[in-house]
């Protein structure tokens, strides 16, 4: 009995023996500094009990994607107990992200003993600080602006609410908050985005739930219409989000213009002239980016609206919803049209031309290759607004190493697994040795008692 009690005490001592846990380094500084719109610089200062031997920056932006992609940068630093390091994401090399987007970052580092730690993930808003931004919210919409009074912002907010009501009546309901950044002029807007045409007036970024527009207070009527137009891009973009297919430009721009309520007088006259003179554009060509030439771009928007209106008026809103769902499920546009309406792109164009009294399309004019749809929807040139050309959303590529799968952040006080494992193995060896000694003593004691009888 004494032997068993001794053994139990020994086991309890080993089981509850405190194991040392490697502490994370003291984070003296962990920040991001914006040089909008050119770059963002990440800085880190650490103090550790042992030498830090490796360090990597993980970063990205928050958007709707098919899977999280983590960019990695490996800045140079001097290994040691005190580390100071910084690295810049240069948008002038990689291409920019939209104003208002959220950027996140975290640091991973390893010490000389093999312990790995991760700092807490942090975020920052990619936005300039030179304008005195103000915000006004209602429902899922928030208007950010700096020029004009609150009545100006509220008028745009009300226009956005009306646009959402029209979309919901058409079967497209917003499912997440949307931010509208209203720059006070076209020049201010162009200063906020890199590598865009000089005539850009606004863009919608459905994957970010962000709209950016240049609207001066004296151009409010155009601003109201444009807000409704751009919101359609965001809502439709979320409704049809798919990793397998894209919406053709004529469809997404036609829907956006349909939500505005129709064509203005100039656009309607231009469309009717093109119908009479047989200068309409092929629907297949309108699947990709619209022309940069003013009259051709205007006709592209007007014709897209007319085609979408024809589909809705002739076959009903439900079939339009079915078409969008088919595209969301990964069907290409021709397969989706055939599935819902019974014709492909050329068949749709022929039916639409007949309905509006245009000359049937020429078979020789039909292209065989299907263009790639434009990924970034923008605004049409209306009421004197500049022509807008769609351009793709940039992705950070400079000095990064993308990861194919998401990596979950770890706690800053993460246990040092290699050291703990070594202690457990050592403890087990000591326990087995002690048990062996006690067993040997017990056997010798029994033999000694037996020999004395």
Short description:
This protein has 453 residues and is of the alpha+beta class.
How would you explain this protein's 3D organization?
This protein folds into two domains: 117 residues, Sandwich (Immunoglobulin-like), CATH 2.60.40; 232 residues, Neutral Protease Domain 2 (Neutral Protease, domain 2, Orthogonal Bundle), CATH 1.10.390.10. It has twelve helices and twelve strands. The strands form two sheets. Strands 1, 2, 3, 4, 5, 6 and 7 form a seven-stranded antiparallel β-sheet that branches. It has a five-stranded mixed β-sheet with strand order 8-9-10-12-11, sandwiched between helices. β5 and β6 form a beta hairpin. The radius of gyration is 32 Å and the shape is elongated.
List the helices and strands and how they pair.
Layout: H1 2-15, E1 26-35, E2 39-61, E3 71-73, E4 80-90, H2 91-94, E5 101-111, E6 116-118, E7 122-126, E8 134-138, E9 141-145, H3 150-169, E10 178-183, H4 186-192, E11 202-205, E12 210-214, H5 220-239, H6 249-260, H7 265-277, H8 294-315, H9 317-328, H10 333-340, H11 345-356, H12 417-451
Parallel strand pairs: 9-10, 10-12
Antiparallel strand pairs: 1-2, 2-3, 2-4, 2-5, 5-6, 5-7, 8-9, 11-12
Helix pairs in contact: 1-12, 3-5, 5-6, 6-8, 7-8, 8-9, 8-11, 9-10
